[in-house]
Specification:
heterodimer, A: 268 residues, mainly alpha, two-stranded antiparallel ribbon, 69% helix, B: 302 residues, alpha/beta, six-stranded mixed sheet, three-stranded antiparallel sheet, 27% strand, globular
């Protein structure tokens, strides 16, 4: 029997090929944050953020880079897997696979691998475009890059598991988009992706803190913004320990929901 | 004589290992009994056809054997395993031909078949399988660009790629044009010659006659007949019917010895019988009789 890992790795290639050849996925999951970065940076090119003692002024590219990175984590994980797996549950993909000797673990290795590869490329493009097209300033300390890396990948795991959990909601392949997209869009509005988080009313900030996206954005701001900007955050600190905690809690929560709702073979 | 030969063949088959054994299989939903007390076995290397009208319980039965459905009661063994607890090893020994390729749109035929080959311990060669289903020239085409019949052949290829001992086909040719059906039958005949055990459901009688060694007729969840395809319905239903015109009415007589009967008839009439017809009921007549008999509440004997 071929090993679970070897099959899982072959699934990554298979999933990536499918992803690249699915125009919807390529546009709404991969290109969308890149386009939004360009749109926002250009549209608000006059915008500047200044805080006494920050040492520098934030341009629109500086402001939107962490926001779009956070958006990328959400759409590459939750939106992508939420829609993709909801469709696979209803169009016969899972049924076909569960009739073959593949282990569900190999299937999930394929899904996570696809998310990790596409999200990593997306983040690289975001950073390169922000830096070289719009002059965004990148972090200079190794510490900051380490923070960027763990927030990004822990956030991606949480976001992916949330996507698997949310894929239980649509009742047909056709309704997948309609069911998954609205909550994700709302989450972006209340979590500081489109609108500056610090400009939202405090009750809404508190509400958004129940969800992972706000914490991912906060972690990214801590990396790309000068330290003095932490006073604009809820509680006046970056609270990276809480970022870590919140994301771990979401990973566990997503796992519980997945275990309860995901059925490899849907026996009736 | 023919009859005793068939009995002998069955006795010999009992000695062989059965690939599939189903005993008193019953599947109940809240207030609906989809399959009721169905029993049959399929010998290794045999092609067994489950015939029946739409909604009779064919798909439910085959899906229980495939491990896609649970059963309410009864015993099921496929290759000695209970499909309800299908292990990966079990999955590698059976092949399932799905009814639609709706999930396979974007990748090429070759990519998909090669990928699925990698899921099995002893797969067939991907190119050979593509050739067997007549898709070797389509290997680099995306599945969604193929015609419906060609897409279905991808399903067949994926059912075969793992080199299964048992192949399940659920209404494999529904919606096919006649030429594609003939081509598909040819693929199945080649597999039969390799000794593959095949279970297929269909509501096409010609398909059952073309492909089946043995078969069963299922109506309203009950197995109303089982046996060699050529003997389905039992000897009474298979009796030759002689009809002729005498004294202004059409007379009919069922007999096992039509030649002898016509000889007697001619002798009695002292002339050639008028409008003489000798009809041996085909599978279609027998099948329709079985359905009508079941629906009228008549118990049909095997």
């Amino acid at each position: 029997m071929p090993s679970v890992l070897a099959v899982g790795i072959s699934r990554i290639g298979y999933e990536l090929k499918t992803y690249v050849r699915t125009p919807d996925a390529l546009f709404f999951n991969f290109m969308f944050p890149l386009m939004m970065l360009v749109v926002f940076t250009v549209a608000f090119s006059e915008m500047e953020l200044d805080i006494p003692g920050a040492g520098r002024v934030l341009t629109s590219a500086d402001i939107y880079l962490p926001a779009m990175l956070a958006m990328g984590v959400l759409v590459s994980g939750t939106q992508n897997l939420g829609i993709d797996m909801a469709i696979e549950k209803h169009d016969g993909t899972l049924r076909r696979l569960s009739g073959s000797p593949i282990s569900p673990i190999s299937y999930f290795i394929g899904k996570f691998g696809q998310v990790f590869v596409s999200a990593t490329l997306q983040a690289l493009f975001l950073i390169l475009i922000a830096r070289f097209a719009f002059g965004a300033q990148l972090p200079e300390t190794a510490d900051a890059w380490v923070t960027l890396t763990w927030v990004f990948y822990l956030g991606l795991v949480a976001s992916s598991i949330l996507g698997i959990a949310i894929s239980a909601l649509p009742r047909s392949a056709k309704s997948a988009n309609a069911v998954v997209l609205p909550p994700i869009l709302i989450l972006q509005f209340i979590s500081g992706v489109y609108l500056s988080f610090s400009s939202l009313p405090e009750w809404l900030q508190n509400f958004a803190s129940f969800f992972p996206l706000k914490w991912i954005g906060q972690g990214f701001r801590s990396v790309f913004y000068p330290d003095a900007f932490k006073q604009a955050e809820l509680g006046g600190q970056w609270y990276l320990d809480q970022v870590f905690l919140a994301l771990v809690v979401w990973v566990l929560l997503g796992l519980v929901v997945t275990v309860l709702t995901f059925k490899w073979v849907r026996k009736s | 004589m023919v009859h005793s030969l068939a009995i002998l063949q069955r006795i010999i088959k009992l000695g062989e290992m059965n690939a599939i054994e189903v005993r008193a299989l019953t599947k109940k939903y809240q207030d609906l009994t989809a399959v009721s007390d169905v029993s049959f076995e399929i010998a290794a290397g045999e092609t067994f056809v489950l015939l029946g009208p739409n909604g009779a319980g064919k798909s439910t039965t085959i899906e229980i054997l495939e491990g896609f459905r649970t059963r309410s009661s009864g015993e099921v063994r496929v290759l000695g395993e209970d499909p309800q607890k299908a292990s990966r090893a079990f999955r590698s020994r059976i092949g399932i031909v799905q009814q639609s390729a709706g999930d396979l749109g974007r990748l090429s035929v070759g990519d998909i078949v090669r990928h699925f080959a990698g899921l099995y311990p002893n797969p067939r060669d991907a190119d050979e399988v593509l050739a067997a289903v007549g898709l070797e020239s389509k290997a680099s085409e995306p599945v969604k660009k193929l015609s419906g019949g060609q897409q279905h052949r991808v399903d067949v290829a994926l059912g075969l790629i793992g080199n299964p001992e048992v192949l399940f086909l659920d209404e494999p040719t529904t919606g096919f044009d006649p030429e594609v059906r003939r081509g598909f039958w040819e693929v199945i005949r080649n597999l039969q010659q390799e000794g593959m055990t095949i279970m297929l459901t269909t509501h096409y009688l010609d398909e059952a006659e073309e492909l089946g060694h043995r078969g069963g007729v299922i109506v309203d969840g009950k197995l109303v007949a089982i046996g060699e395809i050529s003997e389905l319905g039992g000897t009474e239903a298979r009796k030759t019917e002689v009809s002729w015109f005498e004294n202004g009415i059409t007379e009919k007589h069922k007999t096992d010895n039509p030649a002898w009967f016509i000889g007697e008839l001619s002798a009695r009439l002292g002339q050639e019988p008028e409008r003489l017809q000798v009809k041996t009921p085909g599978l279609e007549e027998v099948y329709l009789e079985l359905l009508a008999g079941h629906r009228n509440g008549v118990k049909v004997e095997d």
